[in-house]
Design a protein that fits this description.
- The chain has three domains: about 5-180, NAD(P)-binding Rossmann-like Domain (Rossmann fold), CATH 3.40.50; about 185-425, N-(1-d-carboxylethyl)-l-norvaline Dehydrogenase, domain 2; about 435-465, Single alpha-helices involved in coiled-coils or other helix-helix interfaces (Up-down Bundle).
- The chain has helices spanning about 15-25, 40-50, 60-65, 80-90, 110-120, 135-140, 150-165, 180-210, 215-225, 230-240, 265-275, 280-290, 295-305, 315-345, 350-355, 365-375, 385-410, 415-425, 435-445, and strands spanning about 5-10, 30, 55-60, 75, 100-105, 125-130, 145, 245, 250.
- Strands 3-2-1-4-5-6-7 form a seven-stranded mixed beta sheet, with helices on both faces. A two-stranded antiparallel ribbon has the order 8-9.
- Helix 8 (about 180-210) packs antiparallel against helix 14 (about 315-345) and helix 17 (about 385-410) crosses helix 18 (about 415-425).
- The protein is built from 19 helices and nine strands.
- The longest helix is centred in the last third of the chain and has 30 residues, at about 315-345.
- Helix content is about 55%, strand content about 10%.
- Strand 8 (about 245) and strand 9 form a beta hairpin.
- It binds NADPH dihydro-nicotinamide-adenine-dinucleotide phosphate.
- NADPH dihydro-nicotinamide-adenine-dinucleotide phosphate binds near residues 34 and 134.
Length: about 475
């Protein structure tokens, strides 16, 4: 029997769509799903749906592995966590030297780095593959962020690049990211940026809802989406706003409590660890946490019963500029985190190429990312690009206006605040941190640096006693 060129283990939402994508690209595949899970007949159902002679289905792991040509390329598409280790250990007895295992789930990059090392002891190659685009992206062309050894990537590149989304120039939105857990790291930061972008849209919606109907807000977002601000998230938000269930706007039926699967908070935890202020996306994580305190919010809202005397109308031109401003800051913070990780772990990551990979197929794809990818070919950071800094500078008045509108109308817009605060902090040459240095030395003899002294020099002062 002719062997398949590629194997997919796990036929959940993403595994199924990626398998169909491969078949649409004429890649002969073998698929596997366990039969002991919550659902049975998953493989049989898939074979029926696919209706394609290039796919073989298995519920026996050994038969599945044996049906793939060597060196094997097997994509694991199951939930992240300990399950991945169980699946890897289940596969190991059937694998041979030089086979390549790819984890396409949202695994933590540190776990991926450990798995790369563990499997290399068994002479098996391991790739941690960030996949973005949701179910539709997986089917029609996702954005792919592979990390691990470059040699292993080169062996799977043809397949991944075939199924990936294509950028404006027809190049695949997939390229080697870097060693160890670099691919999953970049996917994690992508998700963090996604949290920030989503929350900014939610804040716009809250501000606009004071004076506009869902239909009017949707129309405005569709208009913005025609220009420089075009993005996947803006477009789906414009659609969501006019979605109905029966005669009712669906949004009126959805509870105002946002959940999360953890990648946003991972991204913020890593940012804290690496000392990078990623305040917009971290605030977006907090906004979701705050939303989950629904009962408390309802009780407190009744207690304070504060009425806004008259609604301050919003300046739509300023709002559009403020949105552009905050989105740029959110992206810049995410890219700074990637750059710091790259320097810390010696990964040699290419920010321009990462933005290019994000330019299509993924949830944060946008016209701006395409533009910023080109900017980053010339400079190392968006803050080194004259046109970006002068654009943000011009937009400062707009963001100030929007924050004032939020204050006047008592609308919670935390991510807009954080974008503004970060910009002010980053563009203030003399900060108040000299006082922090002094306080630390006063109570803890932590020493301080002095203006004009060598960077490695530190000082302690014999502070006056408290009266
Ligand atoms: P699903 O929940 O739809 O599917 C999970 C799959 O994992 C199922 O095939 C399930 O099998 C299998 N599975 C679960 N536990 C085990 C186990 N112990 N042994 C073997 N197989 C197991 O998940 P998704 O397809 O949505 O997600 C898969 C991965 O991709 C996750 O890491 C997710 O974070 C990531 N991802 C998801 C995206 C999305 O939009 N959904 C986007 C990008 C990444 P069974 O049917 O038998 O339960």
């Amino acid at each position: 029997m002719k062997k398949s060129s590629f194997g997919i283990l796990g036929l959940g939402v993403m595994g199924k769509s990626l398998a169909l994508n491969m078949l649409n690209n004429h890649i002969p595949i073998s698929v596997y799903n366990r039969e002991t899970g919550e659902e049975v007949g998953v493989v049989a159902d898939f074979l029926k749906t696919a209706n394609n002679t290039s796919v073989k289905g298995f519920t026996d792991l050994g038969e599945f592995v044996n049906s793939i040509e060597t060196p094997r390329q097997i994509l694991i598409m199951v939930k992240a966590g300990k399950v991945i280790d169980r699946v890897i250990n289940g596969l190991l007895p059937y694998l041979e030297e030089n086979d390549i295992i790819i984890d396409g789930g949202n695994s933590h990059y540190e776990d991926t780095a450990k798995r790369v090392a563990y499997l290399s002891e068994h002479k098996i190659n391991f790739i941690g593959l960030g996949v973005s685009g949701g179910e539709e992206g997986a089917l029609k062309g996702p954005s792919l962020m592979p990390g691990g050894s470059k040699e292993s990537y080169q062996k799977i590149a043809a397949t991944l690049e075939k199924i990936a989304a294509k950028d404006d120039d027809g190049k695949p939105c997939c390229n080697y990211i870097g060693p160890a857990g670099a691919g999953h790291f970049v996917k994690m930061v992508h998700n963090g940026i996604e949290y920030g972008d989503m929350q900014l849209l939610a804040e716009l919606y809250a501000l606009l809802l004071l004076t506009k109907t869902y239909e009017e807000i949707s129309k405005l977002f569709f208009e913005w989406n025609e220009g420089e601000l075009a993005s996947y998230l803006l477009e789906i938000t414009a659609k969501i706003l006019v979605e109905k269930e029966g005669n009712e706007n669906l949004l009126n039926l959805i509870l105002d409590k946002a959940g999360n699967k953890g990648t946003g908070s991972w991204s913020s935890t890593v940012a804290l660890k690496l000392g990078v202020p990623t305040t917009v996306k971290t605030t977006a994580v907090y906004a979701r946490y705050t939303s989950s305190f629904k009962n408390e919010r309802v009780v407190l809202a009744k207690k304070i019963d504060r009425k806004i005397k008259s609604i301050e109308p919003i300046d739509l031109v300023a709002l559009k500029e403020a949105y552009d401003f905050a989105r740029t800051i959110n992206l810049q913070q995410g890219l700074q985190l990637i750059k710091t990780a790259s320097d810390t772990y010696n990964w040699g990551l290419d920010l321009a190429e990462i933005c290019r990979i994000w330019s299509n197929g993924c949830i944060i794809k946008s016209k701006k990312i395409v533009a910023y990818s080109k900017v980053l070919q010339q400079v190392d950071s968006l803050f080194e690009a004259k046109q970006v800094v002068s654009g943000l500078n011009k937009q400062e008045t707009a963001i100030t206006k929007i924050l004032q509108n939020g204050l006047a109308n008592r609308v919670n817009v935390p991510c807009f605040y954080e974008a503004y605060n970060y910009w002010i902090a980053m563009t203030t040459a003399q900060s108040s941190a000299n006082l922090i240095q002094a306080q630390r030395d006063f109570f803890g003899a932590h020493r301080f640096q002095k203006i004009g002294a060598k960077e490695e020099e530190s000082f302690h002062h014999n502070w006056s006693e408290l009266c």
